Hints:
The protein is α/β, with parallel strands linked by helices and 348 residues long. Helix content is 46%, strand content 14%. It has helices at 2-6, 8-21, 44-53, 89-100, 112-120, 144-157, 164-182, 192-200, 213-227, 245-248, 271-285, 301-323, 331-341, and strands at 33-37, 61-64, 77-82, 104-109, 126-130, 204-210, 234-238, 259-265, 291-295. The strands form 2 sheets. Strands 2-1-3-4-5 form a 5-stranded parallel sheet, with helices on both faces. α3 packs antiparallel against α9 (213-227). The longest helix is centred in the last third of the chain and has 23 residues, at 301-323. It is globular, with a radius of gyration of 20 Å. The N and C termini lie far apart (45 Å).
Amino acid sequence: MLDFAVDFPSQLEEAAGIGRKFTPPETFRNPRHIVLAGMGGSAVVGDFLARLCEDRSPAPFVVCRNYQVPAFVGPQTLVIASSHSGNTEETLAFGDAALRRGARILCITTDGRLSGFAHRHQDDDVRLLTIPQTDPPMPPRAALGYSFIPLVYALESIGVYPGAGPQVRETIALLSRQRDRLGPGVPTRRNRAKRLALSLFGKLPWVQGTAPLMSAAAYRWRCQFNENSKTLAYSSEYPELNHNEVVGWERGEAFSGLVEVIVLRRPQDYWRNRARVDITKRELIGPKAPVHVIEAEGRSPLAQLMSMVYLADFTSLYLAFLNKVDPASIDSINTLKQRLKALRRPRK
């Protein structure tokens, strides 16, 4: 897992090559709405794309983590079915239902049943974007670049996300420099990810992000702590948390010493959101729990988002080592899948 993190900038470069080569059909252009269906690491790319497209695309972008298709899905909808393995049951069910509604469908996967679905329905406006299977196999959360960057280019090619190329190039260069500061060979005193992991050891991380972009990054941090570090973590966003969560901190002494807060923000955040972060840290949460405020690096939204994602990868892995757990294992998820596989559908 650490090797995958160290090699992540190279993964982004390879993923960019895949994205540049993909040519969607003309029928994919100008969708009325876009839906990404996926679960886990294959769904978080939808969170990223939805937030990146928010101020660029006239088409609303919805992420569905479920079996069911929203009522609005139809012939003018572009559905992105995202499954790293190609065998995610919720995504397969969603794809079947979307096909019956006449939606245009882009499948992104390494192989599996989703790949077969795309091949069978090429004549029904279904296309396949194949991403690599690695040796050793890469968990979906470690393959984020393969699942994400080709879709950035695909959305550019249909007119939804212009200017992808320069943003991707900036991102690769930035993450390469980050690796030189966060990698395993960099000593703790100069390594922000290692220092942050040490501070979080034995604590419950609570990650807060400013809307719209950093809230998507905060959710990724939470998931990386859950899966890599095997620790409970939570995430929330500004300004929404100032209308509910912040009141819960009034009894912060009840969990003092158990929680540490990480705040993700960017220089371009709306000025009142930046003020909210400062006031909340100084007067409302800071007296109850340590608060780490992290500013995104880079100029473009894509680079800023991925700079936060990369810091989360290293931090969660170093915390896994401190917790003496295998960051690759997902025993609880596998147990659940086995139990579900043994079930039979109840009769109506």
